[in-house]
Write a structure and sequence with these properties.
alpha+beta, five-stranded antiparallel beta sheet, 5 strands, 39% helix, globular, oxidoreductase, oxidoreductase activity, Nitroreductase
């Protein structure tokens, strides 16, 4: 794939994750090695990466995720309830809603779950601006997802489990100064094609010099 193709066709994969095919540990580590080339503030590299492949651990995290996902799907902000006044866009949102529900029921069955984390030396997150802090982790997580896509793996970015972050931290034995950023299910995908997703035109979100 060309860089442009990779960047425009890396989709959130939920319904087409292969739940039966194991993902080799060395393949995940290869993707993470690439991810570690991403920038971080002051080159601190304070990221930590937890890969969950043990069936019991996956099931435990999956159960928490399902609880959070069910609550989200019932909320007013759920994907399927957005843009109801626009039939075309609403149809897209309904598909997203169904795919979120599908993954919510099966998260614990995905062969590998990746949780990118930040280790904070002070032991707590700042009450002020945290953009730089999380900005030192999220590019690396996205690099992981791109590397996975280029190797035939599907991923999805979700943070729903963070509603119960402390419960998941206890399941995983995380120290008190380690904070989770996301949950990224990782599996081979079924099917053989991805295409750019429909997006609002650039002109609707672009500003020059001032709003």
């Amino acid at each position: 794939m060309t860089p442009d193709e990779l960047l425009t066709t890396t989709r959130s994969v939920r319904r087409r994750l292969d739940l039966d095919r194991p993902v080799p540990r060395e393949l995940i580590e290869e993707c993470l090695t690439i991810a570690l080339q991403a920038p971080s503030g002051s080159n601190r590299q304070s990221w930590q990466w937890l890969v969950i492949t043990d069936p019991e651990q996956r099931a435990a995290v999956g159960a928490v995720y399902k609880r959070a996902c069910d609550a989200y799907l019932e909320s007013e902000g759920a994907a399927g309830k957005l843009f109801a006044e626009d039939p075309e866009r609403s149809a897209v949102q309904q598909r997203v809603h169904r795919s979120v529900a599908y993954l919510g029921d099966r998260m614990g069955q995905v062969p590998a779950l990746l949780i990118p984390c930040l280790q904070v030396t002070s032991g707590k997150l700042s009450d002020g601006n945290q953009a730089g802090l999380w900005g030192s982790l999220l590019p690396a997580a996205w690099s992981y997802m791109l590397a996975a896509r280029s190797r035939g793996l599907g991923t999805a970015w979700t943070t729903l489990h963070l509603t119960y972050e402390s419960e998941v931290a206890e399941i995983l034995g995380l120290p008190a100064n380690v904070f989770q950023a996301a949950l990224i299910p990782t599996a081979y995908y079924t099917g053989d094609s991805f295409k750019p997703a429909p997006r609002e035109p650039l002109s609707s979100v672009l500003h020059y010099d001032r709003w």
